[in-house]
Amino acid sequence: MPENAIFNTGIFREDHIPILRDSFDNAAPFRHLVIDGFLQTSFAEKIFQYFPSLLSMKTHYTGMNERKAEDTNFEILDKNFTVLHEAMCSELFLNWLESITSIHPIRTIDDRLGYGLHQGGNRSFLDIHIDYNIHPIQKLCRRLNLLIFFNPQWKAEWGGNLEFWDSSVKNCVQKIAPQFNRAVIFECSEISFHGYSRMTIPEAITRKSYYQYYFTPITENSPFHDTLFKPRPEDSLIKKIIVPAKEYLKNSAKKILLSLGFEKFLK
User: Fold this and answer.
1) Is residue 234 part of a domain?
2) For residue 119, what is the enclosing H or E element?
3) How far is CA 98 from CA 20, 34, 35, in A?
4) Least packed by Cβ within 10 Å: which of 52, 56, 141, 150?
């Protein structure tokens, strides 16, 4: 399927590129960009229509820091999910990303650490965190996250906003509602703290999104770390003690596995 049947072609206009680049570069608290109407409406509606049920998702996270589901098994889903993924990895799209972010050369990785679907039901949440910095198998540096939301008629009182926090995780600087066909692109770094607070939504509603991560070759000797969660300012004292200890132990164990050559256990 040609890209003009998937993307809103207006985003590729030459005169639009400098505007997008300026918006990305000047966003706070870290570089990011929000684009509404990102996909052709008819194509986005197909993704919503065929989005898998929450219960059918392959992986369910129910820990102290997150409650959500994830799936990357596009082979058993409607063909339009594969079409979307291929478009997000196309030369046209990678060139466009490089032009608005000035990050290059951008690469993609075809595993669950590189793309897939997220979904959360009532009481779903994702605590504030930064993402893993180096793909443990491919040894590439994670530089960009791209999210596309598929949530028609999302109500503000439900919560579920994508939150961007300052580097000290003291203040939420940006809240971005997960509106239908809205894309968010943001730079991954050691200060790109993000997440979403616990939602209160009807049982028939879920928070649906597609995620795609983009990578570049490693240019400096940065040590690997996995996802690093941080407690919120309003969290209990117990959680503020447990979370840093848990994250330290988790990351120490994964670094040991990596040093011993057991990268496959980190995938």
Assistant:
1) no
2) strand 115-120
3) 12, 16, 16
4) 56
Domain with residue 202: its CATH number is: 2.60.120.620
- Total domains, the chain: 1
Closest CA to 147 of 32, 227, 254, 25: 32
- The C-alpha torsion from 69 through 75 and 76 to 77, rounded to 10°, is 70
Say if 247 falls within a structural domain: no
Contacts of 89 (CB under 8 A, 6+ apart): 108, 110, 212
Sign of the torsion angle spanned by Cα atoms 38, 92, 86, 220: negative
What is the spatial distance between Cα 162 and Cα 146, in angstroms, rounded to a whole number?
12
252 vs 256: CA distance, rounded Å: 6
35's tokens: 């684009």
